[in-house]
């Protein structure tokens, strides 16, 4: 029973990380209808920046804030410099471009910071909670991760449903020509969408770095799991991304604990294929008719 509880709590913690990455993917999809395969490399860059700030200043929270700010700037720059020139081209062009951008950013990180993985400090203690003489595999830092991801998901859902900015972003994504006729600055909405998504990705990078160490390719498995979580929950649903991330984290934790860690990638693939076959839009897919 203790093992089951530990695996469940560990899965919730890992799932919150997957959810944060899934939220970044969902944000870009909702704002621009593009799947950003460079998301892992972008959050890696912002995490390296945060690490440099923490090492030089000694302040975790300053590095945390700088990571979010650099994510906003990086997302806006990527949209303006790389994505906007192919905005009117077929969507596949932008997807291929994000794959090239991934390669570029990984190479740049290797040249600037090196390829040797390094540690990254957590926000809070990594010592598990003590319950009745038993140490649980769930720490104050895990609690912080879960609460932050839930707060971000609620904030994004409120942004898209309750604010003029969110409604304009949805209109620009689903009907850009009509949105332009109604006075929406579509190009600006795309930039805002990429900036917010990169900030969510930067948050995910800072949260997961203490667990995976920091290196140019350290976040690739996290990106894959985040993508599966986004598909599982539905690419149009921020709450679905969180639920999908947590569900995926718990499922993979059970597989690792009871069947072996070598089967985790296969389990993630099976879950992805099953969702695409049975419910391609995700478990929380929006209805076909949308109000923008």
What distinguishing features does this structure have?
74% helix; two-stranded antiparallel ribbon; mainly alpha; single chain; ABC transporter involved in vitamin B12 uptake, BtuC; disordered C terminus; 292 residues
Question: Secondary-structure map with pairings?
Answer:
Elements: H1 2-32, H2 39-57, H3 60-83, H4 91-113, E1 130-131, E2 134-135, H5 140-162, H6 164-174, H7 176-181, H8 186-212, H9 220-233, H10 238-259, H11 264-278
Antiparallel strand pairs: 1-2
Helix pairs in contact: 1-5, 1-6, 1-8, 1-9, 1-10, 2-3, 2-4, 2-8, 3-8, 5-6, 5-10, 6-8, 9-10, 9-11, 10-11
Describe this structure in words.
With 292 residues, the protein is mainly α. The protein has one domain (2-124, 135-278): Orthogonal Bundle (ABC transporter involved in vitamin B12 uptake, BtuC). It has eleven helices and two strands. The chain has helices at 2-32, 39-57, 60-83, 91-113, 140-162, 164-174, 176-181, 186-212, 220-233, 238-259, 264-278; strands spanning 130-131, 134-135. A two-stranded antiparallel sheet has the order 1-2. Strand 1 and strand 2 (134-135) form a beta hairpin. The chain is globular. Residues 287-292 have low confidence and may be disordered.
């Amino acid at each position: 029973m203790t093992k089951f509880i530990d695996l469940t709590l560990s899965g919730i913690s890992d799932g919150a990380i997957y959810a944060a990455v899934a939220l970044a993917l969902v944000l870009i999809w909702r704002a621009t209808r593009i799947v950003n395969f460079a998301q892992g490399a972008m959050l890696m860059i912002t995490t390296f920046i945060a690490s440099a700030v923490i090492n030089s200043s000694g302040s975790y929270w300053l590095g945390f804030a700088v990571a979010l700010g650099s994510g906003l700037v990086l997302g806006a720059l990527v949209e303006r410099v790389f994505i906007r020139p192919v905005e009117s081209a077929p969507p596949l062009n932008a997807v291929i471009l994000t794959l090239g951008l991934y390669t570029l950013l990984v190479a740049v990180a290797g040249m600037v910071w090196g390829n040797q993985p390094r540690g990254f400090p957590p926000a809070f203690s990594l010592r598990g909670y003590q319950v009745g003489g038993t140490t649980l595999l769930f720490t104050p830092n895990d609690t912080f991760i879960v609460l932050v991801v839930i707060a971000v998901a609620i904030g994004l859902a409120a942004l898209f449903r309750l604010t003029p900015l969110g409604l304009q972003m949805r209109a620009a994504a689903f009907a850009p020509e009509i949105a332009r006729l109604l006075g929406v600055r579509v190009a600006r909405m795309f930039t805002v969408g990429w900036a917010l998504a990169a900030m969510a990705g930067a948050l995910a990078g800072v949260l997961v770095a203490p667990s995976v160490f920091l290196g140019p390719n350290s976040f690739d498995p996290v990106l894959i799991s985040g993508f599966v979580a986004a598909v599982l929950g539905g690419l149009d649903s921020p709450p679905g991304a969180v639920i999908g991330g947590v569900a995926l984290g718990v499922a993979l934790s059970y597989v690792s604990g009871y069947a072996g860690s070598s089967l985790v990638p296969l389990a993630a693939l099976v879950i992805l294929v099953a969702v695409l076959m049975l419910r391609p839009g995700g478990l929380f897919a929006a209805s076909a008719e949308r109000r923008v």
